[in-house]
Amino acid sequence: MPVVVVESPAKAKTIEKYLGSDYRVLASFGHVRDLPPKDGSVDPEHDFDMKWEVASDSKKHLKAIKDALKDDQNLILATDPDREGEAISWHLLETLAPSLKKGSEVSRVTFNAITKNAVSEAMLHPRQIDQALVDAYLARRALDYLVGFNLSPVLWRKLPGAKSAGRVQSVCLRLIVDREMEIEAFKAREYWSVHARLATPGGDEYDAQLVSLAGSKLERFDLATSQKAAMAVSAVASRELKVSSVSAKPASRNPWPPFMTSTLQQEASRKMGMGAKACMSAAQRLYEAGLITYMRTDGIDMAPEAVHAARDAIRARFGDKYVPSSPRMYKNKAKNAQEAHECIRPTDMSLSPDKLKVTADDQRKLYDLIWKRTIASQMEAARMERTTVEIGSADGQVGLRATGQVMLFDGFLKVYDQGRDDDEGEDSARLPVINQGETATKVGGAFAAEYDKAVGGDDALIEAASAGQLVAQGFVADENTSVAARQHFTQPPPRYTEATLVKRMEELGIGRPSTYASIVTTIQDREYVRKDKNRLIPEDKGRLVTTFLVKYFPRYVSYDFTADLENELDEISAGDLIWREVLGRFWKDFSKALEGTSDLRISEVLDAIDDALAPHLYPPRADGGDPRLCPLCHQGRLNLKTARSGGAFIGCSNYPECRYTRPLSAPDGEAAVGDRVLGEDNGDTISLKTGRFGPYIQRGEATEDVPKPPRASIPKGWDAATIDLEKALQLLSLPRPVGAHPDDGEMIEAGIGRYGPFVKHGSKYANLPDVEEVFTIGMNRAVEVLAAKQTRGRATAAAPLKELGDHPDGGAIQVMNGRYGPYVKWEKINATLPRDVTPEDITVEQALELIAAKAAKSPKKTAKKPAASKTASAKKTTAKKPAAKKAAPKKTTAKKTTAKKAVTKKDEG
Fold first, then answer.
1. Best label site of 136, 271, 463, 605, fewest CB within 10 Å?
2. Directed axis angle between helix 602-612 and helix 540-552, to 10°?
């Protein structure tokens, strides 16, 4: 019985079902070997020799494969059809080679979809491992190791608080930091646009915009002030207007090509707010279930049989008019090894989303997106008519334009239209029937509501700009409000979303589809970047790392250099370059750059970063003063400093006499978080100070009699710069007595503790949702909160965060939220989620591994049970001591069996 090896147990189960009892299908659970994270794993001195290590979790999976090979030495490696899949097969062969007898058959098969036909066809066409793809993997892995393992320690030593650097990760971070710098350096520019509401002789209304004034074409900034805008409004309002021309041009829109990895990630982000990692996790599940083709691909072409199936599905569902006369063919310009794969598409075009039997919401939504995009890609183009109407005065002094479009045939838009990123909107206004030469009558009161809103009830904003005009904030209109001018300001470039970041990386040639998800996740896990309302914002430590790398390693965070290196890796995949030679050229220059930083002192690094970030750290002050002058002592100069615990902050050069500090990202550079006196209370000085755990309030000063004066930490969410004496006294007064509990008369208190705001009654605590409520909560509310906490304590188990399905041995697997964070629950086994895995992203396979690992450890805990019941056992066995001796081994055997069974579950799952 030949042994087939794939990556995941879910995939193994599906393929074994297709192949039947003639094959035994086992899972490797991903990579079985990796470079150990220690010096010397890649040795540049010995032609980049690489030392591999079998992961401890992989040993039992390898043992299962070796045991299976004892019965049949025919090994079929069926890992994923990409560079990474080829590498897994190579690692498996290298590791299993000593167990294979001479003459054993080893073959490699690949399939783009997990369907019965695709798998059966692949088994008929085995091949050998593609060494060029393996070489490309080795080169990429060695490069990432050499950069990360050598550059990260430089960061740790020279830049406290930095966590790591990576070959592509650091370049991706630079994109986000550079964009933030653009936004901060951006200076908004004012301009105005003038609009008129017009009507045809039949009374149909439409809007037109002023495009020429005084016989000249208007450019964007020609109306740069409200005065110029008011003059333009007057010019339009005082003239009769006629339609000078009407032109209608046919237009068409072709459908988007089917998905490849990067476009799928972008669209999932745009339409569903799904991050790259979550998108690929859901796509992996759909692929393993045989519902879609392989999800890591740069290709957009589709197999001929799939094209015909799509056309048949369109014809059956929408009719012949939606099927183009000939199939649509798509080709991209990618040169790397993964372009040979098909696009991401459903394996069965007739399986529409409404027929899909998938319970997981993310998978259902993603399949819906993939199905619609695929079907739409083979549909007829959308046809429309774009109309442009020119309106002008008889004297030629003013000219207006109205544009719109009419949809003649929706074509592929009946099914799908791609989401848009920032500034990708298009004019889709509908226009009535307008004829050349007809009068364009201005509609009175058209902008009255907009004017009222702009005024906002504030009479101070109303003034006469000129005779018969009304002016409000950012708005000018004629007295009839039929013509209006609106104020605009140019906008800075938008921050990246995951979708636009992936799109930009793809445009620059940085990274590859299989790496995008992990890169975007890593920079967030390292706390270099945070996501806010789906926008990626660099944290201070991310700025510091990027500035350091740009200063001392400019070549290795260069967009062009990184893209060129990716192209070389692609050439290795194609067999056109030798991987060791590529590594040699890279290491020669990179090692010199590393040597150049060996003598750097931290103070030098901080001074260099301080200068580079000066525009961000010390923005110009409104009063024109020196932005580096300390706002507390008015003598010292502000500069970048490092904290003992890591990280950096802005401090005064007069330390320790002046203890002014603020974080790097303090708004306008003026948020004081250092020592300052807030006022006095009952003869005590109330001060705001900064300690190792952040800012706090203190009453008085430390003395021999009072070494620890009353203190209160600033609550999370409060801005230390806004703390005044009143707020400080409120914090020092905590805990605050609310009143005696009506049941037992014991005092209820409200305060702020380690876990946030709370109310307390005796030894019972209940959390409050908001810090402010600590100072306002009354008796009724306090009793209600405490009662609700007590009720929850008696209630049944909380609802799971996520249902993962059934365990292979029966019973539901759930993700729960616990006191110490989320965990996986199966029967009586609770396994805590690793810090880098979120409840939304965890897969069934990961859950099975966590459960199995926990189950394997559980006997150690249960071993204490016999000792706990020693007394009871002694009473029962006093008369028959020999029987007691037999009982002990029996229990031990049972425990060993349990442990062994748990490991087997993991292997099978």
1. 463
2. 100
Local structure of residue 255 (DSSP, 8 states): P
**Nearest CA-CA partner of 358 in 816, 909, 805:** 805
Q: What are 386's two structure tokens?
A: 């774009």
Using one digit for the tens of pLDDT, what is the confidence trace for 59-78? 999 999 999 998 888 999 99
Report CA-CA distances (Å) from 607 to 157, 180, 181, 541, 600: 15, 21, 19, 16, 11
Q: Are 188 and 488 in contact (CB under 8 A)?
A: no
Instruction: State residue 893's pLDDT score.
Output: 40
Q: How many CA atoms lie within 13 A of 84 on its CB side?
A: 15
628 DSSP 8-state letter: T
3-state secondary structure of 684: strand
Q: What is the 3-state secondary structure (H, E, C) of 42-61?
A: EEHHHCCEECCEECHHHHHH
Contact assessment for residue 640 and residue 652, using Cβ atoms and an 8 Å cutoff: no
Q: Does 764 have pLDDT greater than 70?
A: yes
Residue 252's H or E segment, with its range, is: strand 241-253
Strand partners, 194: 485
* pLDDT-based confidence at residue 905 (cuts at 50, 70, 90): very low
Per the CB < 8 A criterion, the answer to whether 64 and 58 are in contact is: no
Q: Are 384 and 405 in contact (CB under 8 A)?
A: yes
Best CA proximity match to 10, nearest among 806, 841, 600, 750: 806
Mean pLDDT within 123-139: 94
Q: Which residue has the tokens 């800012």?
A: 695
- Compute the distance between CA of residue 666 and CA of residue 656 in angstroms, rounded to an integer: 21
Stretch 412-429: mean pLDDT, rounded?
72
Report the distance separating Cα 803 and Cα 715, nearest Å. 35
The set of catalytic residues is 294
pLDDT digits (tens, 9 = 90+) for 162-172: 778 889 999 99
From CA 553, how far away is CA 159, in angstroms rounded? 14
- What values do phi and psi take at 679, rounded to 5? 150, -165
Residue 269 token pair: 């982000």
Question: What's the predicted TM-score (pTM) here?
Answer: 0.70
Question: Alpha helix (H) ranges present in 206-248?
Answer: 226-237
pLDDT for residue 771: 87
d(CA 528, CA 531): 10
**pLDDT tens for residues 105-120?**
999 999 999 999 999 9
| Nearest-angstrom CA–CA distance, 267 and 3 | 39
Q: Quote the distance between the C-alpha of residue 694 and its chain's center.
A: 29
* Distance between CA atoms of residues 477 and 447, nearest Å: 8
Residues in the chain: 909
Q: 10 Å Cβ neighbour count for 787?
A: 12
| pLDDT score at 797 | 54
Judge whether 682 and 707 are in contact, CB under 8 Å. no
- On the question of pLDDT at 347 being above 50, the answer is yes
d(C-alpha 399, C-alpha 210), whole Å:
6
Backbone angle region of 777, left / alpha / beta, with phi > 0 → left and psi within -120 to 50 → alpha: beta
643 falls in which pLDDT band (50, 70, 90)? low
Q: What is the 3-state secondary structure (H, E, C) of 632-678?
A: CCCCCEEEEEECCCCCEEEEECCCCCCCCEECCCCHHHCCCCCCEEE
* Angstrom distances, CA of residue 850 to CA of 11, 811, 823, 831, 856: 19, 16, 9, 6, 10
- Contact assessment for residue 891 and residue 859, using Cβ atoms and an 8 Å cutoff: no
With CA atoms as reference, report the closest residue to 812 among 798, 829, 795.
829
Pair 411, 378: CB distance under 8 Å = no
Strand-pairing partners, residue 879, are none
Q: Is the backbone of residue 95 left (phi > 0), alpha (psi -120 to 50) or beta?
A: alpha
pLDDT one-digit tens code per residue, 183-239: 988 889 999 999 999 999 999 999 999 999 998 999 999 999 999 999 999 999 999
Mode of pairing for the β-strands spanning 216-217 and 535-538: unpaired
